[in-house]
Amino acid sequence: MRYTLPHRTPCLVTNSAAAGPNLYLIHHGQTSASGMHCNGLQDQQLDDIGQAEAQVLAQELATRALDRIYCSPQLCARQTAQAIAQDRRDTAGVALQVLVRQELTAVDRTDLVEVYHRVGRFTRELRREFDLGHRVAVVGHHWSNRMLRGALLGATLEATLAMSDYQPANGSCRALWCGPHELKDPAVWCDARPDQPPGIS
């Protein structure tokens, strides 16, 4: 039986930057292994709840301009990204591309030093996108998204690990604005999880 999420009030909003967000950090939808230790080491597909979460994310982002979607090579991330990209065009009118990047692969927490450096390298590609004025979605995992946010903030690994204000959960999206020398993070969410109340946290 397919899981249907309850009706939600749209909760993804623009931050204070005049141009609005240019980066959407998205955690893939739920899988049967979600919540298990080292679940990121398994290549899991979205379960029924995860598929519903991906659809909610697609609906929430439908009115947002996007030029590119990057995602982890793992199946759950690819499925989430494909749901968001389906039948969409970028700001130039071309079919929206989903680009797979190994740097966004999920890992066990014991490899966080390696993840931090790997994701840090990926920020250079993101910065080039922002320099072109592009708006980008990144579909990743709990730790890859936390490390990516920290790297964009210019935080050390230790400072990134100490940041408790960003704990990406299944089906969540954080809207950010990245300028040449700054990252504005207003802590607004599109949260598709069925066990959470709608609205902004």
Please provide a brief summary of the model.
This protein has one domain (23-30, 40-191): Phosphoglycerate mutase-like (Rossmann fold), CATH 3.40.50.
Biggest β-sheet description: 7 strands, mixed
Q: What number of structural domains do the residues give?
A: 1
Coarse shape:
globular
Number of helices: 5
Uncertain spans: 1-18, 186-201
Helix-strand makeup class: alpha/beta
The total of beta strands comes to 7
Architecture, according to CATH?
3-Layer(aba) Sandwich
| Rg over CA atoms | 16 Å
CATH class, anyone?
Alpha Beta
Helix content: 25-40%
Strand content: 5-15%
Instruction: Determine the N-to-C terminus distance.
Output: 30 Å
* Multimer state: single chain
Could you say what the CATH topology is called? Rossmann fold
Going by CATH, what is the homologous superfamily? Phosphoglycerate mutase-like
Mean pLDDT across residues: 78
Notable features of this structure?
14% strand, 201 residues, Rossmann fold, 7-stranded mixed beta sheet, globular, alpha/beta, disordered N terminus, single chain, disordered C terminus
